[in-house]
Amino acid sequence: MFIKLAFLIKVTDFLIIVENLKKFNKLDVDQGKIPQDVHKICSCIRNTFCLSYSIRKRNNIYLYLLNNQLIIKFDGNKLKYLGPDERSQSLLLNKALSLSNERISKDQYDWIESTPGIFIKKLSSNQTLKHYIDSLTFYGVIIFFQNFDFSPNFLDKTMNVMNKLEESLFIFTSVAHDIKKINVPQLLSTYKNAIPYKLPILKSIEDKILYINFQIDRFKENKVHPK
Question: Which residues of the chain are modeled with pLDDT < 70?
Fold first, then answer.
């Protein structure tokens, strides 16, 4: 069970919804033949955690594989062996995916640790992504990214939202056709703290994650050293 002390430690969570990930193995990694979708996920992992000489301990990233009802969690506070290079990220991800195949075949629904800080969980047939979001602890804001016209620009932010970014859940869908299978705005319509945003200049999820971390760092710096 993962419990965050929401009022003591601020944690930033990123949830990426993908339809599936193409299969790959260590030989593919060694030969530089990592599938493009896996490459993008590795970039998201890197931009979530990696600093010049350390790891962002207060960040987590969740990968929700829609077709398999599978969640892979990278817990920044417990992560080990994660380097800034794609080889490190892809091999750790591959180990979790390999373990998930065993989990699916055994029809288990508890968290299993793949390597330190990386966990997998298969949702049961009566669980949905909303059930899982409900199981997470308090968030200041749930922010989901869409390209719809009604979504405000992320740059048009208020101080109240900025103050809560560090304890927010950010939700991304990897490709447009995922929207047809899971309607994120409808899924989050019951949450009063859910806000749609768009970043029209930044197209990739990994760039958006990098931008969010930059905004959080800048906001914290301005609080400590106001201009």
Answer: 1-9, 103-107, 137-139, 146-162, 175-181, 200, 223-227
Q: What is the pLDDT of residue 44?
A: 97
- Sorted by where each begins, the domain ranges of the chain are 14-224
Contact predicate 74/57, CB 8 Å? no
Question: Reduced to 3 states, what is the DSSP secondary structure of residue 205?
Answer: helix
Instruction: Say how far apart CA 130 and CA 136 lie, in whole Å.
Output: 10
The string of pLDDT tens digits covering residues 62-87 is: 999 988 889 999 999 999 999 999 99
CATH: 3.30.1490.20, 3.40.50.360, 3.10.290.10, 3.40.1280.10. Which one for 14-224?
3.40.1280.10
pLDDT at 147: 52
Number of Cβ atoms within 10 Å of the Cβ of 22: 10
Name the 3-class secondary structure at 61. Answer: strand
- Cβ contact 201:174 at 8 Å: no
Distance CA(201)–CA(186), nearest Å, equals 25
Tokens read off for 197: 């945003």
Amino acid at 38: V
Cα separation, 74 vs 9, in Å, equals 17
Amino acid at 139: Y
